[in-house]
Amino acid sequence: AVSFAFTGQASAEDVIVGLVTKTEVNPFFVKMRQAAEAQAKEKGAKLIARAGKFDGDNEGQVAAIEDLISAGAKGILLTPNNSSGMLNIIKKARDAGVLVIALDTATDPADAVDATFATDNFEAGVQQGAYARKALGDKTPIVAMLDGTPGGTVDTFRHDGYLKGFGIAEGDPAIAGAAITNGAQDKGQIGMENLLSKNGDINAVYTINEPAAAGAYAALKSFGKEADVMLTSIDGGCAGVRDVKDGKIAATVMQFPYKMAAMGVDAVVEYAATGKKPSGFVNTGSFLITDKPVDGIESKDTAWGLKNCWGD
Amino acid sequence: MKTPAPLQPIPSDSAGIVLEARNVVKRYGHMTALDGVDFELRAGEILAVVGDNGAGKSTLIKALTGAVHPDGGEILLDGEPVHFKGPLDARHRGIETVYQDLAVAPALDIASNLFLGRELRRPGIMGSVFRRLDKKRMRQEAERSMAELKFRLPSITNAVEALSGGQRQGVAVARAALFARKLVIMDEPTAALGVRETGQVLELIRAIRDRGLPVVLISHNMPNVFELADRIHIMRLGRRAAVVSPKTHSMGDVVAIMTGATRVEEARDPGV
Amino acid sequence: MKTPAPLQPIPSDSAGIVLEARNVVKRYGHMTALDGVDFELRAGEILAVVGDNGAGKSTLIKALTGAVHPDGGEILLDGEPVHFKGPLDARHRGIETVYQDLAVAPALDIASNLFLGRELRRPGIMGSVFRRLDKKRMRQEAERSMAELKFRLPSITNAVEALSGGQRQGVAVARAALFARKLVIMDEPTAALGVRETGQVLELIRAIRDRGLPVVLISHNMPNVFELADRIHIMRLGRRAAVVSPKTHSMGDVVAIMTGATRVEEARDPGV
Amino acid sequence: MSAVPVSPPEKTSGVMAKIIGVPSAGPLLVLLAFGLIFAITNPRFLATHNLSIILQQTVIIGTLAIGQTLVILTAGIDLAVGAICVLGTIIAGKLVTSGYDPALSMAFSVLVCTAAGFAAGGLISGLRLPPFIVTLGILGILTAALRLISAGGAFPVRDEFLGWTGNTLRLGGFIVTYGVLLMFVLYALVWYLLNETKWGRHVYAIGNSPEAARLVGIPVRRHLLSVYLLAGFIYGIGAWLALGRIPNADPNALQTANLDSITAVVIGGTSLFGGRGGLIGTLIGALIVGVLRNGLTLAGIDPLWQDLVTGILVIVAVALDQLSRRKG
Amino acid sequence: MSAVPVSPPEKTSGVMAKIIGVPSAGPLLVLLAFGLIFAITNPRFLATHNLSIILQQTVIIGTLAIGQTLVILTAGIDLAVGAICVLGTIIAGKLVTSGYDPALSMAFSVLVCTAAGFAAGGLISGLRLPPFIVTLGILGILTAALRLISAGGAFPVRDEFLGWTGNTLRLGGFIVTYGVLLMFVLYALVWYLLNETKWGRHVYAIGNSPEAARLVGIPVRRHLLSVYLLAGFIYGIGAWLALGRIPNADPNALQTANLDSITAVVIGGTSLFGGRGGLIGTLIGALIVGVLRNGLTLAGIDPLWQDLVTGILVIVAVALDQLSRRKG
Ligand SMILES: Nc1ncnc2c1ncn2[C@@H]1O[C@H](COP(=O)(O)OP(=O)(O)OP(=O)(O)O)[C@@H](O)[C@H]1O
Ligand SMILES: Nc1ncnc2c1ncn2[C@@H]1O[C@H](COP(=O)(O)OP(=O)(O)OP(=O)(O)O)[C@@H](O)[C@H]1O
Ligand SMILES: [Mg+2]
Ligand SMILES: [Mg+2]
């Protein structure tokens, strides 16, 4: 079964690193790919990247892995759309001697892959929610949820984490309504506008990512409510951190796609050279970024954030 | 859907009226295309329907075959009222029609068009169980039919859209002739035909009549009408202006009635 | 694109040949529709083109007007070779054509179809700067034209698809008559017309000739052809079988040549 | 695929004639009916502020749908609408960010969009390729090109002029943006073109029967080219409107604009087979979609159920339209 | 929108006749040409393992495109293909997970897909609504319903029978899955239906001219219903194949299947106006898309550039096809 995987002492130029991200649509993954490219170049490896066409494109990701095995990739870095759909193909790849590392999103079970370099998205959601609740003070919370794509692994983790951190359960009357944004700014704006038309007393807004938050901000502004609402987000893109600095977003939770990508490429190159495989879950961490810290919640300011953000 | 073998006439009370319409009305918006038309087709006759453009001839025959739904009046086949929901019902009753706009599928070939809705299946198990078309036989039949009409055809496998206007009309005429079992209605079947081909179709119409099937022939060609028709139904302004016999009336008379130069009281069947 | 005012004939050498084709060939795949046809249309004449179905008449006139591109041969207008890239070029040279399939836009109304490609604009600044259509005038003109042909029309604002077959043909004929400045070609213009309307169109054709424009008339109706034509161009199997004068030949002669019953050497222009 | 294949012509043709040029009453009635229902469900729906929000939300798709209508009337289809519009935002954004004059930048970017339309039209009319494939190909090409130009990321576009279409003004208690006004102006202009000029007549003729149009001497290919060109120009204006609404140039924006704009056109009663329909229907179609989304949120319907209800209501809308025509 | 509006009939009609029933040589030549180029770029492309991978990758879209071809041949369009197929995976998955017999569960889910097709066909033929709107509405309804059924999330489907179509067997050095074989069987069966039976003849006739079909006595509405019904059934089988490929039921899967399957059909030479084209072209069209994606990856082309190159090559493919027809 290993007939098509070139084994033996490959020189660094021969090492092909495959990267399969969820979509090309999300800047998070675009930046991850760019970081991986840069790292691969530095290490003298060749990166072949592919992505699904949309959140949930399991077939596209499976096909990408198959093609990468055919292309002779030494290792594949994967941000699985939906981990259970990937299990067969991951096994096939590993059986063929390909190192498989999950980036950003863990698989279920986690040991399906050799190693996982990721953020804990649920925890990131908790950070966002806890901050929002605390910062609201003694106001009675009325929350709007700007979700990503219903059913997505990350989307669900972040959403549930926020509610946990906020201290409410799904279906709580404090939730004024939800909208599906697919993580896009225009849909974030439309969703927020309609929710504000419905309930003008909304005072806390969960957003799946910073583009959705930017859209929400535009809507809040057009309703003249930008000052009264606790708008928070997750991602840590430089544009998002700037929005925090400008006071548009109260706080965001930063993640580190560069770090994940670079670590992944390094691991594959190392594996090619020495045959040594990484293992286990490596949390690449998440930090709450805000210039208005609240007691009892650890956070960094935007100066730190701008130094460590991704993008640009 | 059982397709009876072609050329097997459905008998009808041979002296009586095969197809009848009473006081049929059809409106298109504000336009009254048929304004209470009566119509009788007798067994074994060739009935010509003539009239100016827009007099309502095509609408009348569409109403008779279920292709349009009349707003009023009734239609009787062999004396009993029928309600055709669509042309399929009429076809099931053995009525074949050449519509003025031909009703052909342009991208399909001649044989396919000739057998459209009446496709032949292979004999034996291939046909009955596997429902396989008998393309070869359909092609041969098509070739024979078209040859009978003396058409110069490029190839029987040509798409109908690649045919000349007359050739296309030939396909529609051949189709009706092939499958009629009760009566045939032809809406200007020779309009696009050449001299020779027209002669051939006139002969075909006679042959159909001689097979015992009555024929309704719409035509603007008075010499043809007078050559063939047993009776002439004259339409004017959405009504039947008169029914005359070519034996008792001249072409001039008919044209005069048609154009309104001669008035007739509501036409009575001359009972020729 | 300057549209000259209608009814302003483009003069041509009145004794000479206005439109000529030499050895035109047109193939469709394996089928040779035109097999080296010659053709001459003289100033001021009505030239009938007759032939069996599929003889190549429509293909010939399409080749003459740029609607199809011949595979060989040449076409001359007023003695000089022309290469029409499409029907637009022919129209620019003042040639108007009634195609057999009518070339109408079914969903557009009668007036729009009559002026299709020749729309009238409002007078003054509305037309020249704002390019606004003069819908009212087009409607009135259309009403007048159709009334001249004595059609019973439901309403001038009807979509053409809601017209009877003959009415639709009337629109195409009226269009050609309205705009021709050099010559008119009509492919079976009376095929779907009633007796009265046919008479009207024959009169129209004569009127066009009397305006000084030659007319090419394709028709299967021999009496009409003999009534009108100055010369008769007979097509057979994609070639010109003969050109005869209705004065020297009888209908029987023409039909015999057309169907191949009589052989003629490659027809020479009788020079009537 | 709106000319319902199974209906005998008698049932539709009479009305078809009326639809051309005359606004179709069907979609309008549907719009009013939905509005009424939502107004009853939640009185906030009729608040002037909410109505003005719906208009603003309709601006982008509503504008793109103008070009889409033109293309569909010629029996074509445009899958690249969104991509061309985004191209406009990114080029204008890049230029302004690089310090060029905003008005010139916007003008140049409209020009580029027009050129993209021209390219599509050229392939379609010149090489006679199916519009579906050509615009799909251009969609792929632009998607990649946009990401390459913007290096993968979105970037904010903060410029007074580029954002001008998002500024609001009061019109008798009603707050509208200049973008909304511009959209209406575009509708009026293109309506005039379609209904009062030769050019528009020929669009219908080509959509009805390209062969008939050719035979009567309409320069079909050149005309098709002009249609795609104008559509591209409109998408360029759409880019300006998009920047007014979202001051952000994002290569990944407007991904569903092709389907959304086609939906507006079809709900508005224009046939995907070409030659039948009109622009006013499209405007109403775009508004119906906006009203549905807004109204359902105001009615407090869970977003999971919203897709479902929208799906049903879109079918109901067209069914009602169809019904009103049959009676008409 | 494949019947190129500007072409005079003389240029296409002769060939059109040949295309019906006879595989169009154009798409095949394009497929071979692309294969050749990729084989030169990277010898791994022709490895039997890689070829078998391409086939496997084509299974889902290739199968869905069968139903799409039928619908498009009747001048319809189906935007709900992907949603119906996903419906099948989720229902089968839910049932099996709840302990029902796998074969019965799968059969039931195919039945539900058939019913979905029936619903679409019923609305289209019964109420005479445009297929675009009906299937768009059904897409919305199903998208929501799927999320509701699966409570928002994807879930693994681990069952021997449901996954059976993903099992491989060796055919003379060539590894194929049962799914690939099943797809070919479906193509053969539907090809037979389309080309050798009355039913197929009537599909073409209706697509060509619904009015002519009605006048010659074809029960147009009932026939349309049967087409959508069969399409639904095929999407149900597609669900089984999808489970064999990815043992996972995900409400968010196959979102681009509608566009992808239409693309395969159009590249394969079938006209979006109905009545012209055929099934073999569709298979080749689906393979062309698969070969492009695989070949570009093997050539190591950056994903950003892949979209761009794919966009260009899709246009080139259809242009070549068009060219080969004009000569043919
Ligand atoms: N679908 C339609 N919608 C509206 N009006 C129609 C429709 N079909 C026919 N009409 C009108 O009904 C009248 C009768 O038309 P019909 O086709 O029956 O005439 P006809 O006698 O067959 O004429 P022709 O000799 O020209 O074929 C005409 O005035 C026509 O305009
Ligand atoms: N588009 C086409 N493709 C293939 N063959 C064609 C095409 N158009 C015409 N033909 C063939 O060319 C021959 C001549 O056709 P044409 O239309 O010129 O005949 P015609 O003399 O006008 O006949 P009619 O009197 O029936 O109108 C016919 O045999 C026809 O089948
Ligand atoms: Mg008639
Ligand atoms: Mg002809």
Structural features, described:
Chains D, E: Its main location: membrane. Chains D, E: Keywords: Cell membrane, Membrane, Transmembrane, Transmembrane helix. Chains D, E: The chain crosses the membrane at residues 20-41, 79-96, 103-124, 130-150, 171-194, 225-243, 264-292. Chains D, E: This is Fructose transport system permease protein. With 312 residues, chain A is of the alpha/beta class. Chain A has helices at residues 27-43, 58-71, 83-95, 121-136, 153-166, 185-198, 210-222, 238-245, 257-274, 302-308; strands at residues 16-23, 46-52, 75-78, 99-104, 115-118, 143-147, 175-180, 204-207, 230-235, 251-254, 280-283, 287-289. In chain A, strand 3 (75-78), helix 3 and strand 4 (99-104) form a beta-alpha-beta unit. Chain B contains 9 helices and 10 strands. Chain B has helices spanning 57-64, 87-92, 110-114, 124-128, 135-148, 165-179, 195-210, 222-228, 251-259; strands spanning 17-28, 31-42, 46-51, 72-77, 80-82, 95-98, 183-187, 215-218, 231-236, 239-244. Chain B is globular and about 60 Å long. Chain D is mostly helical and 328 residues long. Chain D has helices at residues 9-19, 25-41, 48-73, 81-97, 102-126, 131-149, 178-196, 198-208, 210-215, 220-245, 257-267, 279-298, 303-327; strands at residues 155-156, 168-171, 174-177, 248-249. In chain D, helix 11 (257-267) crosses helix 12 (279-298). Chains in contact: A-D, A-E, B-C, B-D, B-E, C-D, C-E, D-E.
